Amino acid sequence: MAAAVVDIEALRCEVAGRTTLAVPRLTLHAGERVALVGPNGAGKSTLLRTLSGFAVPAAGRVAVLGCRLGAGLPRGALRQLRSDVGQVMQGLHLVQRLSVLDNVLIGALARRPGWRSWVRWHTSDVVGEATQALAAVGLAHRADERADRLSGGERQKVAIARMLMQRPRLILADEPTASLDPAAAHEVCDLLVRAATAVPGATLVTVVHAPALLPRLADRVVGLRHGQVAFDLPLAAVDEPTLAALYHPMPESAAVTSVSATLAGRSATVATPCTT
Q1: 3-state SS, residue 170
Q2: Which domains can be identified in the chain, with CATH numbers?
Q3: What is the pLDDT of residues 173-182, one digit of tens each?
Q4: What is the model's pTM?
Q5: CB atoms within 10 A of CB 109
Q6: What span, in angstroms and rounded, lies between the C-alpha atoms of 161 and 195?
């Protein structure tokens, strides 16, 4: 079995004393494509923030790429971990006043020690690599334009190109297709998978709201509801009833009524004499 990239045990996250995420056990392995699904407030984004070290667990053990996260983790170790974790988040976090190329070059800063990273000084080789990353997402011709002049889909592509410069071993994507039209959404999904394929053994974890995109992004699906894991299944086992139960769970009283009605119907069918 491939090595564990994410290893979670007895995780609990809290906000103002309220538990927002409780995961007894979850392990993600190298090379997996994992989708997180569930209604709003289910804990999907909280889980991604925890894996990137931006949310500190209230309890439990979280290890990412062999690094145990927590309040006691040295800043240097956290910085090194984040250099190995690529992120495509809802806010994109592009520097709007910088050019497209400069935004992509930011992805290489972790590889540029000392003053070179402070002044954003890059060798011709690194600039060439950034140009190739833009070409890979179809935006080489927009390299010199300001980021704030791009469309939403184009900005997502720039974020993916920037991530390619990191050469990440773990990719976290939080609703990367939000507000995109279907064609752009499909293109962004394909680019994410290609980005994960570019680094041998890289793991892709994506928050997905549109079930139709699951086959493009995942081979494993983790369903979250009320901050807990509702199911953890291979993609082939996730069907419409499974997703419907996740997003629209039947109230207990309604479930009892439904079962009683079904049983009553069966009894009536058995008791009704056949007339000819």
Answers
A1: strand
A2: 1-84+205-259 (3.40.50.300)
A3: 999 888 788 8
A4: 0.83
A5: 17
A6: 9
Which tokens hold the place of 161? 């190109």
Distances (CA, A) of 37 to 31, 148, 274: 19, 30, 48
The radius of gyration computed from the CA coordinates of the chain, to the nearest angstrom, equals 23
Q: d(Cα 4, Cα 180) in Å, to the nearest integer?
A: 33
Please list the residues that pair with 35 across neighbouring strands.
206, 221
Please give the backbone phi and psi of residue 225, each rounded to the nearest 5 degrees, phi first: -150, 130
Output phi, psi for 213, to 5 deg: -85, -10
Taking the C-alpha atoms of residue 189 and residue 176, their distance in angstroms, rounded to an integer, is: 8
Q: Write phi, then psi, for 176 (nearest 5 degrees).
A: -65, -15
Pairing of strands 203-207, 85-88: unpaired
Residue 204 pairs with which residues in a beta bridge?
33, 171
Q: Which of 11, 44, 33, 1 is nearest to 221 (CA)?
A: 33
Q: What does residue 224 show for φ and ψ, rounded to 5 degrees?
A: -115, 140
**Positions in the chain whose pLDDT score sits under 70:** 1, 91-92, 111-121, 250-276
Helical residues (DSSP H) of 54-173, grouped into ranges: 75-83, 100-105, 115-118, 124-136, 152-166
Could you tell me the two tokens for 247? 């997003």
Strand partners, 4: 29
Distance between first and last Cα of the chain:
63
Residue 254 is predicted with a pLDDT of: 45
3-class secondary-structure state, position 97 = coil
